[in-house]
Input
Amino acid sequence: MTLPDAISDIANQSLPKHVAIIMDGNGRWAQQRGKIRVAGHKAGVASVRQVVSTASRMGIKALTLFAFSSENWRRPETEVSALMELFMFVLAREVRKLHDSNIRLRVIGDIHGFSERLQKKISEAESLTAHNDGLTLNIAANYGGRWDIVQATQKLTAKICDGSLKPEQINEALLAEHLSMADIPDVDLLIRTGGDHRVSNFLLWQIAYAELFFTPVLWPDFGEEQFLDAIASFISRERRFGCTGDQIKNWLVSSANNS
Output
């Protein structure tokens, strides 16, 4: 096997199946440019497109993006309102492109906290893409890792109350079946942009054994190249077999460009 073939083999075997991203730094990106914070969120949409496209072309099975946490309701009302409108706009404009690219879209979180109009848009987008079997794109909105565990516990408690489940039957596997994304493998790689080194109540159960990748790059400046850096870092941690991280990164760039 030639060296390029070996690198290709290593990368293909070691690609993460599920990547999650905390998309941080939109507000700071805007403020650094003398703009209102919402401008940063709008600029970040282009980064979402690049990362989703790259993940899809690489054959990654699932990508989960932290769009709006349950704690984000504490932000100024004008910013929250603008974020909701942006969410509506992006859903309406992007869902057809996702569908044409064989991408399944799901929104995880307590969507009942959103307006009926937004809930309807979410339902329509999920229904349109439900049978696609390429990349699964999970958008975490009004989501918190603790909320996820609590809602799973509530479902199990209801089964105990109606007599269909005994407390001693509860184990990790059963609890996991009642979490968001129960049908998707746990996260292999968690990326956080913006420079902070914390997980911010995101997918607390699902990232138990994930590799963590922190970068100071603000989300609107995070594109395909930075995403491939994170993937190359993951692969080099997993299994390089004598290849360097740069060799793997160069193969990933070539592979993504030729897809």
